[in-house]
Write a structure and sequence with these properties.
Four copies of one chain form a homotetramer. With 145 residues, chain A is an alpha+beta fold. Chain A has one domain: Hotdog Thioesterase (Thiol Ester Dehydrase, Chain A, Roll), CATH 3.10.129.10. Chain A is built from five helices and five strands; from the N terminus they run E-H-H-E-E-E-E-H-H-H. A five-stranded antiparallel β-sheet of chain A has the order 1-3-4-5-2, covered by helices on one side. In chain A, strand 4 and strand 5 form a beta hairpin. The longest helix of chain A is centred in the first third of the chain and has 15 residues. Chain A starts with a strand and ends with a helix. Chains A and D meet through helix 1 and strand 2 of A and helix 1 and strand 2 of D.
Chain lengths: 145, 145, 145, 145
């Protein structure tokens, strides 16, 4: 239950060290989340229109190998944990022609409403909760909730 | 009637050519606009709360000399033209220890409401129009360049 | 002789107006240039390794309609003018499901070497010059050189 | 032994949630590092000219309260750990008029040369090592947190 997002490194994403700047990886992770939610049968845009937002509580990223301009990047995104109040996504970043993972990360989010108040998603928007819950069932059997 | 904004080049703003990426200058221009509106006795945040937004219609930027990491940048911002429907800001960018202008630019904006509908600012929010009008009177006496 | 680049609007590319920030379009243009040069049979990465760089001299962008998170963007990139010392690219931006152009722009670049000295590309790297020249021949018959 | 960096939130740094995008905080941390190294009596630009680079190995960031456009931000930067091969910086982010910390983070870096090879900084550039070592002595007496 992992989505794959394909990206090509933009010139603007490099810095004077000649590699992708570390602040770009959280943006790639976000592209991964967008695709994962799409795989679950809705869009993050729709979720926001229904009053569900996912601000970050925590971000972690580890950098193993650099990425360079024009590299073909693959971001694999999954759900590590999910509860009615929070969700943790995990990410693995690869570049084509290089077998090892070049970076990994995870982001923890709170489910909040359009006034940034934390909500119990199961009660607030049960249909969204069930959609994601059902989709990520297998992952959850291993994790805590 | 020109505001001055002081910035220090961020590492993230450089690219693999070793210079500030060209897409950063429009962001610096925006910092200049923020300061100029503050000089006029309000904040752009307040303007938005009162339902006045300033989306871009046009952007122009010319690059004469590169800027580098840790350079001390000065952005001089003024108003080139102003009407009840539109405003054009102009910008000159300098770096400390270098007498010549390193970049220049201008941005044209429409006055719109919170539904992105163009408004006649003089009628829609006369108090804001007058504040800016009065402040930039001298510039306008010269008319278009 | 126009390349097409497909992009999906990233959440990070939006601002508090709820639309794509205007400074993102020059980055999309750059993605367009990357693809266009690839179409000409080389990569911009290779060009840089052979000592040819393309810093911006001028940027122009006009904004007609906003773009939003998750919009599917198409950037059409072509060459407006080309000479041994300079090149001007032009861009048209579209979003899927909307027939009109949402933005257009052009960027003018100088051919420089790795010390940022302007070069006559025809003499400095004739093979690169011919590759691009040949590829964009049709466009040039209309333009100045 | 903590440096303070003052920043004003840029419009471009916000996203459609109306708050500063989470990927901006690592950029602010970097501004903090730049200032901290300046306090130690050199610049990061000079360090790079002497062949010392500091790519990231790990990034962690926790978000407690949102920041908004035009907020006045203070980033407090210190050194958590330092060895001849690695350095960990820690950051606390505040906004004016709000007493609590809005975000915190830390970044771990390797000392590498211009070929991205890990170096023992004590042997490779003893003068830089001593400058930073001496400066951050007090922090180190406390050891790891």
């Amino acid at each position: 239950m992992v989505s794959e997002t394909n990206l090509i490194v933009r010139y603007q994403e490099t810095d004077q060290m000649g590699i992708v700047h570390h602040s770009v990886y959280p943006i790639w992770f976000e592209c991964g989340r967008t695709d994962l939610i799409k795989c679950a049968g809705m869009t993050y845009s729709q979720m926001e229109k229904e009053g569900v937002f996912l601000p970050l509580i925590e971000l972690k990223c580890r950098y193993f190998y650099p990425a360079n301009y024009e590299d073909e990047i693959v971001v694999k995104t999954g759900v590590l944990e999910m509860s009615p109040s929070r969700i943790i996504f995990k990410y693995s970043v690869y570049k084509k022609g290089f077998e090892k993972e070049i970076a990994s990360g995870q982001t923890e989010h709170a489910w909040v409403n359009d006034k940034f108040k934390p909500v119990n998603l199961k009660k607030y928007r049960p249909e969204i909760y069930m959609k994601i819950k059902k989709y990520f069932k297998e992952d959850e059997s291993n994790g805590k909730e």
